[in-house]
Amino acid sequence: MNFDTNNLEPSFAEEFADLFFEIGGSQSKKTQWAEAVHWLERAHNILSGQSQDLLSSDAGELRIIIMHSMARALLNLENDGSKDKAWNIVRELELDCGDRLVVLLLKLDIFATDASHSAQDYCDILHKIVRTVHLTDTNVKTILHHVHKLRSRSPLMAHHVLVTFLYERLLGAEEMKWIEKALITIIWNCTNSTDFLDVLTVLSEVFDALANDAAKALSPHATHAAQILCFGMQAMNLGPSSFTNESGAPLAFSSANSKILAHRS
Question: Is the pTM of this model over 0.90?
């Protein structure tokens, strides 16, 4: 299918770009990455060859989606040339979109596949997302997904991102399911790493923040999960008295207000 895209009417250009985008997306689902890049590039080139003033308002969003999909497909080709092309797309998107979520997530994808970028690079971008992203179920899930990726390189940096997310965004949002997910991830991170010198103090600070600022108690499910993680660490690593006070009560939980760490019926 060969034709001069520069001579297409704007409406036809958008239709062809959308068609080629759908073909590229279909190839991506089949993990046919080279074919996906081919069709997505054609879609991008068609829109780029048009006077932007003559395109509809939807064309701008379509172009962003096409570029995002093309960058992801290029990363899956797993060669240096494709990574360079993916970076060029990110830079082009930055000029058009600034620090929109789609651009920041693309940077994280590139950092995750490029050993030349440090854990600090990844952490800095993730911090920016945490502080600016619109909070939705999908975005919270996306952030926690990338926290897990960061944790594989630096549990301490992952913890810093998590507590920033919890203190600066989630507690103010008062959506307990998000708070609980972040809390369980924090506990899991701390109790499954040797990077923390004093896990009990670190977790007590988090529990105290919840007691002071969370609007509701944790659900029974979240409380139970937190207890399992903490006392699992006690049994495996810290000895019988690490998480209990003189009376045998769970120390880490008693250090925080019981209205948060124990469910109210």
Answer: no
